Amino acid sequence: MKLTMQEAERYKVISEVEGGYLKVGEAAEILGLSERHVYRIKCEFILRPNLPEP
Questions:
Q1: In sequence order, what are the residues at sequence separation of 6 or more whose Cβ sits closer than 8 angstroms to the Cβ of residue 52?
Q2: Position 36 in a domain
Q3: How far apart are CA 17 and CA 39, in angstroms?
Q4: 14: domain range?
Q5: pTM over 0.70, yes/no
Q6: How far apart are CA 37 and CA 42, in angstroms?
Q7: Could you tell me if residue 13 is inside a domain?
Q8: pLDDT of residue 51
Q9: How far apart are CA 25 and CA 49, in angstroms?
Q10: Scanning 3, 14, 35, 42, which has its CA 20 to 30 A from the CA of 21?
Q11: What domain count does the chain have?
Q12: Is residue 22 part of a domain?
């Protein structure tokens, strides 16, 4: 499975949120999204853990 550059960046940032290195608000600012949208992406990330490492 190949990721686009945008998907890879989101995956990297959400991984950092999951690891406790970033807060959701910081991730939202980095990605240019709302905090709510970051929570949605985070949920999808948790439900689809088989994505490749960036």
A1: 1, 3
A2: yes
A3: 10
A4: 5-47
A5: yes
A6: 9
A7: yes
A8: 58
A9: 22
A10: 3
A11: 1
A12: yes
Q: What is the pLDDT of residues 18-50, one digit of tens each?
A: 999 999 999 999 999 999 999 999 888 877 766
Alpha carbon 36 to its chain centroid, in Å, reads: 12
8-12, Cβ contacts within 8 angstroms, sequence gap of 24 or more: 8/54, 10/41, 11/45, 11/51, 11/54, 12/54
Spell out the SS3 assignment of the chain.
CCCCHHHHHHHHHHHHHHCCCCCHHHHHHHHCCCHHHHHHHHHHHHHCCCCCCC
Quote the CA–CA distance of 53 and 24 in Å, as a whole number: 20
Tokens (6 digits) for 49 = 């853990």
Q: Which two tokens stand for residue 32?
A: 């240019």
Q: What is the pLDDT of residue 22?
A: 96
